[in-house]
From TrEMBL:
Protein name listed in UniProt: SCP domain-containing protein
InterPro entries tied to this protein: CAP_dom, CAP_sf, CRISP-related
The species this protein was found in: Orbilia oligospora
Assigned keywords, A-Z: Signal
PANTHER family found in the cross-reference section: CYSTEINE-RICH SECRETORY PROTEIN-RELATED
One Pfam family in the UniProt entry: CAP
Domain of life: Eukaryota
Oxidoreductase among keywords: no
Signal peptide: 1-22
Keyword Nucleotide-binding in record: no
Domain SCP: 53-180
Amino acid sequence: MLFSTVAVHLCAALGFAAGAFGAGFNDLNDFAKDLGTVGAKVDPPLVSFDSLGNMNLVISLINKYRVAHQAPVVNWNSSLAIYAANAAYPCNFRQSHGPYGEILAGSTTVNNPEWFVWFVYGENTSYNFKNPDVNDPRTKHFTQLVWAGTKQVGCAFASGCPELKYQLWCEFFPKGNTGSQLAYRNNVKPADKTKEIPGMPPTNV
């Protein structure tokens, strides 16, 4: 069964999500120097992010879900992407406990970052919009994905980890999943049925 190969881990007792890219920069350290920031270690796994290709597709998908839930679009932040790449590097697939909202998704076979975004969005079916459970771990990825107060995202995609070969890490700022039920109602809104809600992307690219 397909879903048995997928692991999703919430990196936020307080919130996180979104996607990126199997190709672009072979040396993140060189790319990071161009940005004036510290780069990610890239050996043994390939950890990559870029401003073209899959990243644009993933950010577009995230923003379609956000717009459908009456939230403003998020913008790409390269510093968040570098943080995500450094967090992904050890291949531990564990929350980084950093200052950002964070979503982790991994699979032994699925290699399409867009699919991971769609998969975590599926948590919306367990979310109670009228009476949200602010401590429900089953919906933390979804709520971060569409959290209205979040403005920026950066992601990294790891390929080559020994257990979960493909891993998507996304960091969000400001982080969501914080506050009372009122905060959740204000930031996680029901879908506007007049807006597009994308279906399942291909599992592999």
